[in-house]
Amino acid sequence: CFVFNILPFLTFFNFGIEGKDAAILWPIIVNRWEHSLLHNQIVIRQKINFVKSISQHKLKWFNPRYGLMCMSNLLLYGIYGEFCQIRPSHLALPYTKSLFEECWNIFNNELNYTMSTRFRTDISVFHFLMREWSFMKGNFSPLNVFKHNKYTDIASDDVKNICKYITGSKYKQLVINDGENCNLPKTEFENRLSKIINAFEKKFLEKSSFEK
Predict the structure, then answer these.
(1) pTM of this structure
(2) Which label site among 15, 28, 45, 51 has the fewest CB atoms less than 10 Å from its CB?
(3) Taking a C-beta distance cutoff of 8 angstroms, is the pair 54, 140 a contact?
(4) Over the stretch 48-66, which tens digit does the pLDDT of each residue have?
């Protein structure tokens, strides 16, 4: 995730120290990536009722700040109910130390197991566990975080568009993922990567203090 603008404290938190985020529902799709996300939900739902939690915090889940995603939340919740999961975000997230401490106490076994394994397994959990737990507890402030930020994939997106996102000033954060299913030939991948690096060099003419 690359940051292109100054992001003050209030970008991520309100004055009540609640994290600003978008609780967006997704239908459950079982594949390698989604299975890992689904396991997060299985672990969480052993501690809290998914449907009941959403109904207790309706204004945070069905909020006009989400735009059209508010309508999709209403439809998915109405049709699928508990057979939904939460849309992940690769953007910078409003985590706090207290949230991690709370989750580590509640999900101690799951988190310790994940930390003990070198590679991800079917019963590992993501750091999204903390984010999704805060949603279930209603400890967040609704904000459409996808509006001024952009997610891209180096394999599936047009590299020209990615370069435009870099050199332009439209987005505050830009995610460039290399993709779990990146099947590009090595030469093509390196060609796209070279164009992206050149775009960054045009955007930032001087090296940062970390690079000097």
Answers:
(1) 0.86
(2) 15
(3) no
(4) 999 999 999 999 999 999 9
